[in-house]
C-alpha cells in the first residue's frame, strides 16, 4: 500500500508552521516554519497598547512558503515521498481573530483604500481594544442570559469575537459597513 500523509498548518501569533505526518503511524515526515513579515514579530501594533492586528497577506505567503519548504524537506527525508500522497490538510488558528472581508470574501486589507488601516486587518486574539464592549456584553448577559456567563467564567472577554465586532462597528464605520450591504464581516446575524 502506498503511504499517505497529511499536512497540518498552525497559524500562530508570530508565524505559520507546516507539518507533514504519515497517516499510518503519526510519524513526522517534515516540518517548516515561516515568520510573518508585517509588524513587530508578525503583530501590527499602534500607539494604543491594546491594539494587536495581523496582515492577512502573511497568512497567504506563509502557507505557500511553509508548505513548499515542508514538501521539499519530506522529499529529502523520505525517499519514496511524493506530494500526490498528501490526502488531507488540517488548519489550526488562534481563536477569535475576525477579519473584515468584502462581498467576495477578500480581506479589505488587500484593497488600496484599506491597505494601511489596522481596522481592516485581522484582529488578533490578543487585541484588547474592545474592553468597553466586552464589559457591555457582560452586563447585558448578566441581566438577560446569566447562564451564558456561567460557561465563560462570568465575564465576556475583549479577546472574543462579538466584542471586537461591536468595537469595529463603533470606531471604524468605513471598515465595518460597505455601501448598501450592511455588516461587512463573514457572518450573518439573524433576529429571533
Please describe what this structure looks like.
The chain has 192 residues and is an alpha+beta fold. Helices cover 29% and strands 20% of the residues. It has five helices and eight strands. Strand 2 and strand 3 form a beta hairpin. Helix 2 packs across helix 4.
Approximately how much helix is present in the residues?
A: 25-40%
- Global outline: globular
Per DSSP E runs of 2 or more residues, the count of β-strands stands at: 8
Based on secondary structure, the structural category is: alpha+beta
**What Rg do the Cα atoms give?**
20 Å
Show the helix and strand layout.
Layout lengths: L4 E7 L3 E8 L5 E8 L17 E2 L1 H22 L8 E8 L28 E2 L7 H14 L1 H5 L10 H11 L1 H4 E2 L3 E2 L9
Parallel strand pairs: 1-5
Antiparallel strand pairs: 1-2, 2-3, 4-6, 7-8
Key descriptive features of the protein:
192 residues; alpha+beta; four-stranded mixed β-sheet; two-stranded antiparallel sheet; 29% helix; 20% strand; disordered C terminus
Amino acid at each position: 500500500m502506498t503511504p499517505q500523509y497529511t499536512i497540518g498548518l498552525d497559524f500562530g501569533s508570530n508565524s505559520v508552521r507546516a507539518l507533514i505526518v504519515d497517516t499510518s503511524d503519526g510519524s513526522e515526515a517534515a516540518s517548516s516554519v515561516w515568520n510573518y513579515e508585517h509588524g513587530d514579530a508578525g503583530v501590527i501594533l499602534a500607539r494604543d497598547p491594546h491594539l494587536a492586528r495581523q496582515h492577512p497577506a502573511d497568512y497567504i505567503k506563509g502557507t505557500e512558503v511553509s508548505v513548499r519548504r515542508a514538501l521539499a524537506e519530506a522529499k529529502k527525508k523520505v525517499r519514496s515521498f511524493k506530494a500526490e500522497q498528501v490526502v488531507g490538510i488540517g488548519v489550526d488558528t488562534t481563536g477569535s481573530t475576525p477579519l473584515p472581508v468584502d462581498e467576495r470574501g477578500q480581506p479589505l486589507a488587500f484593497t488600496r483604500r484599506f491597505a494601511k488601516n489596522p481596522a481592516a486587518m485581522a484582529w488578533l486574539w490578543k487585541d484588547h481594544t474592545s474592553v468597553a464592549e466586552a464589559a457591555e456584553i457582560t452586563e447585558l448577559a448578566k441581566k438577560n442570559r446569566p447562564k451564558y456567563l456561567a460557561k465563560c467564567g462570568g465575564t465576556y472577554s475583549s479577546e472574543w469575537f462579538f466584542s471586537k465586532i461591536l468595537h469595529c462597528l463603533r470606531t471604524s464605520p468605513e471598515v465595518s459597513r460597505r455601501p448598501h450591504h450592511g455588516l461587512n464581516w463573514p457572518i450573518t446575524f439573524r433576529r429571533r
